[in-house]
């Protein structure tokens, strides 16, 4: 087990992301736009989960470095596109101007496209992964970020604006939109570690509940959070007429749902405690439960 703290691992992730996009001979500032959003901060939850899951599975976490960076590129591209006027129309993210406010809308679209494709390039070029593992990781990344994963969830989310949405549909949206990349973080580590099927199934159950925890907490913070900590204005979901766990269940109902998924995530991961030191992933549950931004 690594003796590094979460903050030390996040610092490693930030250092690896800084300057990962090199200037090109095409003499454009597209790379600057890509790097701007990669460097805009954030919790780095997804790459951190790759590292922590590998660590729990008794693997050298650095074996997942390229996978973790690729995942953060996919996440960052999705945020660039989410912020655009036809979607969430946000001027600020993490306390900084959004990409299209700095570089213009067409360049923001292309920066997102370029980050998406760069993600697959860096996994394909990863010398630390065996060919069969690399194919598994690439296939999982394509599935979880595509029309059956994050992009599909975002589509369903956009189609559901200004419409009444039931709880089942809301969970379907967020299992795909938010949960799919969190699931990839955990299961790509399982792919790299070559775990057995029962371990993989428990990690998948854990990731499902963790993803819903993350979204429910987001919904609560959007209404009750501290703007100075969030780096964006609260109430944007209400402003955009989006159904959320708070709008459907109320504050107490959303908190009860958060508790349910916290307990279910804990129960799933504790079944691995005889085989592995699961403390880092229990710490992630606590982080998701108590976070204020």
From TrEMBL:
SUPFAM superfamilies: Terpenoid synthases. PROSITE patterns: POLYPRENYL_SYNTHASE_1, POLYPRENYL_SYNTHASE_2. Keywords: Isoprene biosynthesis, Magnesium, Metal-binding, Transferase. NCBIfam families: FPPsyn. Its cofactor is Mg(2+). Gene3D superfamilies: Farnesyl Diphosphate Synthase. InterPro entries: Isoprenoid_synthase_dom_sf, Polyprenyl_synt, Polyprenyl_synt_CS, Prenyl_diphosphate_synthase. Belongs to the FPP/GGPP synthase family. This is Polyprenyl synthetase family protein. The keyword Cytoplasm does not apply. The keyword Glycosyltransferase does not apply.
């Amino acid at each position: 087990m690594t003796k590094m703290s979460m903050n030390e691992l996040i610092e490693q992730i930030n250092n690896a992301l800084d300057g990962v996009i090199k200037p090109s001979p095409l003499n454009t500032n597209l790379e600057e736009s890509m790097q701007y959003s990669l460097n805009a901060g954030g919790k780095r939850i997804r790459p951190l989960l790759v590292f922590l899951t590998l660590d729990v599975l008794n693997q050298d976490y650095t074996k997942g470095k390229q996978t973790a960076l690729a995942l953060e590129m996919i996440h960052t591209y999705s945020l660039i596109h989410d912020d655009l006027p036809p979607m969430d129309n946000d001027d600020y993210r993490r306390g900084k101007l959004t990409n299209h406010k700095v570089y213009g809308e067409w360049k923001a679209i292309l920066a997102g496209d370029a980050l998406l494709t760069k993600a697959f390039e860096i996994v394909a070029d990863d010398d630390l992964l065996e060919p069969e593992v690399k194919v598994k990781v690439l296939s999982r990344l394509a599935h979880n970020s595509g029309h059956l994963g994050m992009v599909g969830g975002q589509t369903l989310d956009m189609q559901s604006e200004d419409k009444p949405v039931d709880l089942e549909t809301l969970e379907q949206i967020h299992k795909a939109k938010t949960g799919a990349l969190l699931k990839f973080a955990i299961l790509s580590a399982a792919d790299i570690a070559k775990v057995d099927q029962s371990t993989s199934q428990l990690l998948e159950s854990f990731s499902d509940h963790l993803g819903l925890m993350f979204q429910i907490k987001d919904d609560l913070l959007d209404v009750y959070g501290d703007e100075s900590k969030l780096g964006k204005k609260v109430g944007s979901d209400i402003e955009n007429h989006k159904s959320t766990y708070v709008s459907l269940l109320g504050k107490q109902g959303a908190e009860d749902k958060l508790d349910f998924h916290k307990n279910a995530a804990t129960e799933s991961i504790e079944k691995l405690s005889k085989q592995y030191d699961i403390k880092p992933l229990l710490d992630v549950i606590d982080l998701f439960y108590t976070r204020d931004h």
